[in-house]
Amino acid sequence: MERSNAAQIIIALIPIVGIVMGAVVVFFYLLWNHRRKILLIQTGQLKEKEFDLLTFSLLCGLLLGSVGLCLTILLIIIGGRNYGLLGGIIPFSSGIALLAFFFIKRSNNR
Question: What residues have CB less than 8 Å from 52, skipping those under 6 apart?
Fold first, then answer.
């Protein structure tokens, strides 16, 4: 079954419209969030959030390590040992490094 030219144009426009609408939503979120923070600063109600580096490194290390391990195993099974395997080894090694940072930093804080 052959599609008409009008149908092909409509199908091609759907992703473009979606991207533009998403960009508009993100723009207005950033704009309104900026204005809200400015008002909170002017009224003295803004409380700074403390960033917990240890918890962040633990979470990122666990996520990267598990995703990297799964990708590495899958890519070994599917493609064998080739350069595509780096797609799993790189996040796996990054996750291991973040977990090592977490354990080293935690032992130094005691």
Answer: none
- For 25-38, give the DSSP string: HHHHHHHHHHHHHH
Torsion angle (degrees, nearest 10) of CA 34, 40, 42, 47: -110
- Residue type (1 letter), 33: N
Distances (CA, A) of 37 to 23, 24, 25, 70, 75: 21, 20, 18, 41, 45
| Structure tokens given for 5 | 């030219």
Given a cut of 90, whether residue 30 has pLDDT beyond it is: yes
d(CA 58, CA 67): 14
pLDDT tens-place string over residues 49-100: 888 888 899 999 999 999 988 988 888 888 777 777 888 888 889 999 989 9
pTM of the full structure: 0.56
DSSP 44-58: T---PPPP-HHHHHH
CA distance 94 to 29: 32
